[in-house]
Write a structure and sequence with these properties.
Layout lengths: L2 H34 L4 H34 L9 H25 L5
Helix pairs in contact: 1-2, 1-3, 2-3
Length: 113
Amino acid sequence: MNADDVVKIRTILVRLSIAATFATMSGLIVYGTGNLGTLSARALSIASEGAGLAGFVSLMLSISGLLANVLTRMQGAGFSLASLPSIVLSGVIGSTGMIVAGIVRATGSGLSF
């Protein structure tokens, strides 16, 4: 595998991580607005589960993007500092989405704080 292939893989991983981050934020927005509106309990549950799953995918893709960034340097290509903020932010938003979805599921199933 040459350096160009690793750069392409890194680019794909970063873009997929950003897409999963938007899916996480969309699920959380649907849950928040649906909670204020008239969505059913099942729809709210699906929105929170989707946000949690998309958050997990976003976190895993951002970790993979960081590893691909390191592998890119090991293959002889340049280390991309421009992709680091988007990788880190998508990982942070993904993990936050997982935590919020977990809290929502815990409180929805009867756990009280």
